[in-house]
Amino acid sequence: MRRTRNPAALPGGGPEGPRGRTRRGLFAALVTLPALVLLPLLVAFASILLRASDDRDEGRADAVPCSEALAFGGAALPDGARPVGACLRQGFQDTHYSAAFRMPRTGVQGWLAHTYPDAPAPGTAFCPGEDADLCLDPGPGQGLPAGADAHAVQVRVVYEGAGTALVRFASFTV
Length: 174
Prior knowledge:
Keywords: Membrane, Transmembrane, Transmembrane helix. The protein is an alpha+beta fold.
């Protein structure tokens, strides 16, 4: 008596025969080969991008004369003002200048009116994001002088007692 073989009893078998080994190997080779070629290219591209952003120094702020920072926004340091800290310039595509100075409290309104005569009156209600007693935000068509290089200016004033005001000045392009 002769035994007949049952194809279903063979490992991985069935009526079709062994399954998957050659297809899986071929699939693995087809996926792995392009990945091995593209991975070094991707790493090289990322390093070029990172090196280019380091060369631009877009996040670095440089100290500049306060007269330069204020002039960018069409202003000048008022009489009796004392700069607080360094005036800064930062930028890559957009340029941002900032300055802070203390001045006599009584001269703030006059300085703002003289510097930005066509701007709306400084307000106390809508000084976004800061605890300021007075703010002014001139921009193009909103009182920014024609000779200013900035597209917008933000002036924030905090009254420090009876005689002094801290003025934070920012001018920038967009």
